[in-house]
Design brief:
Layout lengths: L16 H12 L9 H19 L9 H24 L7 H13 L8 H10 L11 H16 L15 H12 L6 H15 L6 H15 L3 H17 L2 H6 L1 H13 L1 H4 L2 H17 L8 H7 L8 H14 L5 H16 L3 H13 L18 H17 L8 H11 L4 E3 L2 E3 L1 H17 L2 H4 L3 H14 L3 H18 L5 H7 L8 H12 L3 H13 L7 H15 L3 H16 L4 H21 L3 H12 L7 H5 L4 H14 L2 H6 L8 H10 L3 H17 L10 H18 L3 H4 L2 H14 L12 H21 L7 H4 L2 H15 L4 H16 L16 H8 L11 H8 L6 H15 L4 H17 L12 H13 L5 H16 L10 H15 L8 H14 L6 H4 L4 H4 L4 H17 L7 H9 L7 H21 L1
Antiparallel strand pairs: 1-2
Helix pairs in contact: 1-2, 1-3, 3-4, 3-5, 4-6, 5-6, 6-8, 7-8, 8-10, 9-12, 10-14, 12-14, 14-16, 14-17, 16-17, 17-19, 19-21, 20-21, 21-24, 23-24, 23-26, 23-27, 26-28, 27-28, 28-30, 29-30, 30-31, 30-33, 31-33, 33-35, 33-36, 35-36, 36-37, 37-40, 39-40, 40-42, 40-43, 42-43, 42-46, 45-47, ...
Length: about 1100
């Protein structure tokens, strides 16, 4: 999982003020009385979006706008006020809703005005029947206007000055009516309406209306289940209880508690997260209103009010109980509201009562722990309970309410919460619990006395450092690092605090790989932390559900063991054996990875070969704990891959030579299973094991040759050569290198097909990459290889390049792309540093660079439209001609349009531009192309995979009339006669229907050549009278189309009539034979008449 740390932009001044003013002026200059055309509307929308984006840059530094706000807000306010007055005076006024709404959004982007005189304008504007505020899409206008009214209501003035003498209270009533209208809206208007109502009920001149609102709200919630309106009602109640007078809240206490119960009793309302959040806020704020405020010295005030708490104690107890229930809610926002409410109430309680609250909160940890054997056996529902408990503890700790006597129990639970990670399906839950636990420890560092933390310092230091280094989630690693930093900075109790903090700071732990492989080994340099990190890796990380965690954990274990290898490695192996015996495949996988990494650590550290072999054998022998059946079950790829990796890293000559008497008798079977596995990752690790074995002894006869095995063995060849490259000349003879290269070249011809498709392409790709890698290796080490030419003769190197080019023009996109990348590597590779190095320069290198090296175009070889017009010119180069033509023929036979069409068009165009016969200045001719195709088919007459694409290529050229002039040359007539004989031979004995069809198409197309027509016509009977009805009917159809489109120089009406009137697909073959005989007679007679 990639984890990137971004840096926020920090501004120093309001840099774009000039441009923003220009954009604002452009928006204000719009004519609101008319709608804009669509094109102009789009331009205006872009203009507003640009304005918004520029202003949003200052969201986090809004103080930079303060000196400019008044000048920028005033024009917008005046324009809106003028428009509102015009609408009030003339309700039928025409306007552009979108343009008005845009200006409203501009105003909201700044700051709202607050002048008493604006009250009547804004209120009357909202009351216009069918006015702009009633437009369903213009929510921004309604939202801004309601906020405007809310801000005006904050100003202390009497509403009565806006009322007529006989209508006292009308203004307040109108405001209440307007706000209630939008209290059930689904958008932001609801929030603005709730703020307006709450402010209205908190005013001295309108506060009496709150009682009626509470009664109405209670009645509505009992009779209706409108979630949106319920949210609006609860928001109003929460705001009034929070900011209104104490008397106001206490007077409505029974009714408000009843509302809370009503919401709880409604299944519809209680299932909504936001409703539950506001219900929790309401309960917590009611509890606060029942308690005296704690201003000044907190401890002194709490002592003074101890005797006053009995007032309303039953209601307080009820509130706290409801908050404890909310701490276990399924949603985070509800739990957090409850946690803050519990802490605020505890802050106002006497010391003893506060302690009881904390003890009750800590008791939540025990709810699901009683029946669980360990932390990881807890049910999934425990996540919410533990998270709520941690949040409440954090809020209580942040307010200095945790007494030293509670610290041991609290830290014990937090130590468990830091590792709360429960597997649930394909993922885990509990990251929020771990994050909240780190928050608690951060709060304790800020509020506890140093003396109270001394007994717990070492334990907290190790645990926080471990979580900061080894947690899966980036935000938790950062939270633990922040808590560690807070303890170091404030208390200076952690061992090597400053040094460890420098290694586990915010940036060091932000990238998981860096935390595991760089920071953790550095922290492990201190013995106080080493054992704890070591145990955490073995007990937690190697057993983690995430594969990447287990892989990084095993590597980190190797680095930590390196600090004291002879002590830590045996201890690790002892615990790893227990993992290998587990029924959980994740444990087994982590154990195998750890053993593999320990073997690597031994190799890196121990120089004595005898001592090294003893330690490697001690690691290798534990592979016996893995039953072979585990490697062959479904989804066994992880275990098989890890087992092969362990073999690759720990195999020794002794174990190989012992054979069946080895400490792990079935280890060769494990490698075979890996080689035959269908997952590429397993095959690659098995190939690594084969390479390691080959580096120690000859294992050429160890594997059976199915497609997966062939791929893996061929994959191992370049790896083996890479291993021995420092001493290649002494360890490998030139004959051995020849054999290895020959094996890879032969692999380029693997076209195995099974139910999975062209599985031979797996082998071809591996061989392409292997030949390139070996060429690079030999070129790079040429100076150190005596008689370099014997190891890699120039002609062999050119054969490699030609083989890559053949694969580069074949039908599969991924094969072409791989071949293209590898060929460009060869083309750009510097020549070997040997005598007469030019002999290894690729033929026609300038032309190759012209065709395929283009700085302006970065298109891959998998794009046929780019590749084939260039690749077709490779036929001009004799050294590449035969393999490239073979690859092009295969692509022409492809069923994929993205390959078949561009290669076909390119070949037709190329053949049309070729001279008929080769001259002194012509390197390639049309006759050469025809003969090359014929010879290619002749050399593979028993392979339909080759012959059919060649026939398809001839059909393509014949249908495109590209061979029209071939009979003009005697050699051309002989070539066409050879093609005629080849396609008509033993047609009735062929079993491939596709080959018969392609032969038929060539015979029919050759009728257009007058020079060989006499010999071609009689051959039609082989197809028109073929035993297969499908062949007969297709031949008749294809022949009819040709006669309709081609001018043969004589009338063919009689032939066409026979083709149309005969039922060629009849089961009576005699009818077809008779019709074919008659057709040929008409054909011959028509030719004779000419």
């Amino acid at each position: 999982m990639a984890e990137n740390v971004g840096e926020e932009k920090v501004l120093a001044t309001f840099e774009t003020v000039g441009e923003l003013r220009k954009l604002q002026d452009a928006l204000l200059s719009l004519d609101w009385s008319e709608d804009s055309p669509d094109a102009q509307h789009d331009d205006e929308s872009v203009l507003f979006q640009k304005f918004s984006v520029m202003l949003d840059e200052y969201q986090e530094q809004s103080y930079l706008l303060d000196p400019y706000l008044e000048d920028m807000v005033a024009p917008v306010v005046e324009r809106l006020k003028d428009f509102a007055k015009a609408c009030i005076a003339n309700p039928s006024l025409k306007y552009s809703p979108w343009r008005v709404d845009t200006i409203a959004r501009v105003l909201y982007s700044y700051i709202l005005p607050h002048e008493i005189a604006d009250l009547s304008i804004a209120l009357e504007f909202m009351q216009i029947p069918d006015g702009l505020a009633q437009h369903r899409y213009l929510w921004a206008m309604r939202y801004v206007t309601l906020l405007w009214l809310y801000i005006i209501c904050i100003i202390p003035f009497d509403f009565a000055q806006f009322d007529e003498l006989d209508r006292i209270g009308e203004t307040a009533s109108s405001l209440e009516t307007v706000a209630k209208r939008y209290l059930g809206a689904a958008g932001l208007e609801r929030e603005a309406a709730a703020l307006l109502l709450s402010r209205l009920y908190m005013r001295k001149d309108t506060g009496l209306g709150f009682h009626e609102f509470v009664v109405w709200s209670h009645s509505f919630l009992q009779e209706n289940s409108d979630v949106f309106k319920a949210i609006g009602l609860l928001q109003v109640l929460c705001e009034v209880v929070k900011s209104g007078s104490v008397e106001q809240a206490q007077a409505e206490l029974p009714q408000l508690l009843s509302i809370s119960s009503t919401v709880q009793g409604s299944s519809t309302l209680s299932n909504n997260t936001v409703v539950r959040k506001f219900k929790t806020k309401l309960v917590s704020r009611l509890g606060l209103r029942l308690l005296p405020t704690s201003t000044g010295n907190r401890r002194q005030v709490r002592a003074l009010i101890a005797d006053e708490v009995h007032v309303g104690s039953d209601a307080i107890g009820e509130d706290v109980e409801l908050l404890f229930e909310a701490l276990q809610d399924k949603d985070t926002i509800v739990r957090w509201s409850a946690a803050k409410g519990v802490a605020r109430i505890a802050e106002r309680l006497p010391k003893d009562f506060c302690s009881q609250v904390l003890e009750t909160v800590m008791g939540l940890f025990e709810i699901h722990s009683v029946a669980a054997a360990s932390l990881y056996d807890l049910p999934a529902v425990a996540e919410g309970t533990w998270h709520g408990a941690c949040l409440a503890c954090a809020e209580i700790a942040r307010r200095s309410l945790v007494e030293p006597g509670h610290l041991p129990q609290l830290i014990e639970w937090l130590s468990k919460a830091l590792y709360f990670d429960l597997r649930k399906g394909a993922h885990s839950i509990g990251s929020n619990v771990r994050d909240a636990a780190a928050y608690v420890l951060w709060a304790l560092a800020r509020t506890q006395n140093q003396s109270a933390l001394i007994p717990h310092a070492s334990n907290l230091a190790r645990r926080l450092a471990t979580v900061a280094l080894y947690d899966r989630e980036i935000h938790i690693r950062r939270a633990a690092s922040a808590a560690f930093q807070e303890h170091v900075g404030r208390n200076s109790l952690f061992p090597h605090g400053i040094d460890v903090l420098a290694k586990t700071d915010f940036y060091a732990v932000s990238i998981r790989k860096n935390a595991f492989l760089v920071a953790a080994p550095q922290v492990a340099e201190h013995p106080e932390y080493r054992d704890f990190l070591f145990d955490h890796l073995l007990n937690v990380v190697l057993r983690h559900w995430d594969i990447s965690m287990r892989e990084l954990g095993s590597q980190s274990l190797r680095l930590i063991c390196s600090h004291d290898l002879y002590i830590l490695a045996p201890r690790a192996i002892e615990k790893i054996v227990l993992l290998l015996e587990s029924l959980d495949l994740a444990d087994v996988h982590g154990g195998l990875l750890a053993l593999s990494e320990i073997a690597i650590a031994y190799k890196e550290t121990i120089k004595d070969p005898i001592v090294l072999e003893d330690h490697l054998r001690n690691v290798f022998k534990h592979l016996k704990h893995i039953p072979e059946s585990t490697l062959t079950t479904t989804r066994s790829e992880l275990i098989a891959s890890a087992a092969c990796r362990l073999i690759a890293n720990s195999i020794t000559v002794t174990e190989i030579k012992l054979g069946g008497r080895s400490s792990v008798p079935g280890w060769r079977n494990i490698v075979d299973i890996g080689l035959k596995h269908r997952m590429a990752s397993v095959q690659e690790t098995a190939a690594d094991a084969m390479a390691a074995m080959s580096n120690l002894t000859d294992c050429s006869a160890d594997s059976k040759a199915n497609i997966e095995t062939r791929r893996s063995c061929l994959q191992a060849i370049p790896r083996i050569m890479t291993l021995v490259s420092p001493h290649l000349a002494s360890l490998m003879s030139s004959d051995t290198v020849h054999d290895l290269v020959a094996a890879l070249l032969a692999g380029l011809e693997d076209y195995t097909i099974d139910e999975r498709g062209d599985v031979g392409s797996w082998v071809r790709i591996v061989c392409i990459q292997g030949l390139t890698r070996i060429s690079e290796l030999l070129f790079r080490t040429a100076e150190s290889i005596p008689d370099f030419e014997r190891y890699l003769p120039p002609e062999t190197y050119i054969s490699i390049a030609a083989g890559l080019l053949k694969q580069g023009v074949e039908r599969l996109d991924n094969v072409r792309q791989t071949a293209g990348v590898c060929f460009m590597t060869l083309l750009n590779m510097p020549l070997p540093l040997v005598d007469r190095a030019d002999r290894w320069r690729l033929p026609a290198s300038p032309l190759l660079r012209e065709l395929f090296v283009s700085p302006s175009e970065q298109i891959g070889w998998n794009d046929g439209t780019w590749l084939f017009p260039r690749a077709i010119r490779l036929l001009e180069i004799p050294e590449y001609r035969k393999p490239v033509l073979s690859g092009i023929v295969i692509s022409i036979g492809s069923k994929t349009d993205s390959t078949q069409k561009p290669v076909s068009n390119s070949l037709v165009k190329f053949s049309q531009e070729l001279p008929l016969a080769g001259g002194l200045k012509s390197a390639y001719s049309l006759l050469d192309l025809v003969n090359d195709l014929i010879n290619h088919a002749k050399s593979h007459m028993t392979s339909n995979a080759v012959v059919v694409p060649v026939y398809q290529t001839f059909t393509l050229l014949l249908e495109a009339d590209a061979l029209r002039h071939v009979p003009e040359e005697p050699a051309g007539r002989r070539s066409l006669q050879t093609l005629l004989n080849m396609t008509s031979r033993n047609v009735d004995k062929l079993k491939s229907v596709q080959r018969i069809h392609e032969s038929m198409k060539i015979i029919v197309n050759l009728l257009t050549f007058e020079q060989i027509r006499v010999k071609t016509v009689p051959l039609l009977s082989s197809f028109l009278a073929h035993p297969f009805p499908k062949v007969r009917s297709d031949t008749a159809e294809y022949l009819y189309i040709l006669l309709q489109s081609a001018d043969l120089g004589f009338e063919t009406d009689a032939v066409e009539d026979i083709l149309l009137e005969t039922e060629w697909s009849t089961s009576d073959i005699d009818v077809a034979k008779e019709a074919a005989k008659e057709l040929i007679q008409h054909f011959m007679s028509s030719m004779t008449e000419i």
